[in-house]
Design brief:
Blueprint: H1 3-23, E1 27-33, H2 39-46, E2 58-59, E3 65-69, E4 72-78, H3 86-107, E5 116-122, H4 130-142, E6 150-155, H5 160-171, E7 179-182, E8 188-191, E9 194-196, H6 201-211, H7 214-223, H8 228-249, E10 254-255, H9 263-277, H10 283-297, H11 308-311, E11 324-325, H12 327-349, H13 361-375, H14 389-394
Parallel strand pairs: 1-4, 1-5, 5-6, 6-7
Antiparallel strand pairs: 2-3, 3-4, 8-9, 10-11
Helix pairs in contact: 1-9, 1-10, 3-4, 8-9, 8-12, 9-12, 10-13, 12-13
């Protein structure tokens, strides 16, 4: 494979990644709750960027600070606890929160609106105080026209029993919140022999996904890191869409020499999956991925030629060598590339591979093996795997 084509495609992918990231709408999340309930720990473990760790937030009002990072489509609005100031502090905070929410709502700009509120209560407190009940009731009543989802997060849930009891206590108030979810945001070491593993964040991540506006779901899947399942599901949907586009392109069989017409779908697919996983990849890593797949496929993705030995890996496609690529073959190639790439991103997310490994022989072998395995799957005309009847009987 000519290195010029590999570098050129890698550059196109990098450009597509940057453009898609720039086009993502900004997600706005507000944190509420008493002082010391672990709001910063929660937000730093829920999202890719540790915004709350910086300690530097822009004052929005006397009671609200705004945390953001350039180039990262997430804004966190943090609020102080009001417990020490009693009723007056509660009312002042409520006025500040309501003002910020109404300002965004009246702007008719989705990027200026608050999309979700996380109200944090510590499980270690063993109680949900009347002042908190009153605050949430007043907030929901005064913002019923805006209809912002409020999720009560029971943080620092070291004891499942304590968290469950507090959850029941909160739910008994019938506040009308979206859900009450216990969470231990990060591992907690009791001693050198005992560690309570983090839990509940994936459940919280899934609930947030369900309640935020549709226009923000793409952004949310990319910026959150608590639910790998969300990223995988979104990525598979991207692959299905790209394979369908490739099938449509190949509906009128493409001469092998003109296979480069498939490149735009595949470039967009890889860029989208990269953004879903929220990784920042150097051009060298993208070039290595292109090299590992294109080298295997004899420039299948780049076009120009398709090596017959590779096409023979695709069930039912070996006969097209020297002829043309059908819609089914185009879909199968695209799906195989997409699924192999998802496998690479998952390996990085789980710590089995490092970003730096992608440009090494170890990383290239992983990518090549994943692509070959995906090519061998039997697929329908849309590129989706078909279960082998013989295999299913064995199971």
């Amino acid at each position: 494979m000519n290195s010029f084509y590999q570098t050129d495609i890698a550059a196109n992918i990098m450009e597509a990644i940057a453009k898609e990231k720039k086009d993502m709408k900004v997600l706005n999340v507000m944190l509420l709750g008493k002082t010391g309930v672990g709001k910063s720990t929660l937000i730093n473990n829920l999202f890719n960027e540790r915004l709350a760790e910086t300690g530097i937030g822009k004052p929005v009002t006397q009671d609200i600070r705004r945390y953001e990072k350039e180039g990262f489509p997430l804004v966190v609005y943090d609020t102080p606890g009001f417990e020490l100031g009693g009723e007056n502090a509660m009312n002042r905070l409520l006025d500040s929160v309501n003002s910020e929410i109404k300002k965004g709502y009246k702007s008719f700009d989705i990027e200026k609106s608050i999309h979700c509120i996380l109200y944090c209560v510590s499980a270690t407190s063993h109680r949900f105080e009347d002042i908190e009940v009153n605050f949430i009731k007043k907030f929901l009543d005064e913002n019923k026209d805006v209809n912002i989802p409020v999720i009560i997060v029971i943080t620092q849930a070291l004891s499942k029993k304590d968290a469950s009891e507090l959850k029941s206590c909160i739910e008994a108030e019938n506040l009308g919140v979206t859900q009450v979810i216990p969470v231990l945001a990060e591992d907690y070491e009791i001693d050198e022999n005992t560690v309570i593993k983090a839990n509940g964040l994936d459940n919280l991540a899934d609930v947030i996904y369900e309640v935020i506006p549709e226009a923000l779901k793409k952004t949310y899947v990319a910026v959150q890191k608590a639910s790998l399942n969300l990223k995988v599901k979104k990525s598979h949907a991207i692959v299905v869409g790209a394979a369908a586009s490739a099938a449509a392109t190949g509906a009128v069989p493409i001469p092998i020499a003109d296979a480069f017409v498939l490149v735009p779908e595949q470039v967009a697919m890889i860029a989208s999956i990269t953004n879903v996983f929220g990784f920042s990849l150097e051009k060298s890593a993208i070039t290595a991925i292109v090299s590992a797949t294109l080298g295997t496929a004899g420039t299948t993705v780049a076009g120009k030629t398709v090596v017959s030995s590779i096409l023979k890996l695709i069930p039912g496609a070996g006969s097209v060598a020297g002829g043309a690529i059908s819609g089914a073959v185009a879909a199968a190639l695209t799906a195989a590339l997409g699924e192999a790439y998802i496998g690479v991103m998952m390996a990085v997310a789980k710590g089995k591979l490092k970003i730096g490994d992608l440009s090494t022989s170890k990383g290239k072998k992983f990518i090549t093996d994943a692509f070959k395995k995906a090519l061998k799957l039997k697929r329908d005309s849309k590129g989706e795997p078909i279960e082998d009847a013989k295999d299913s009987k064995k199971e």
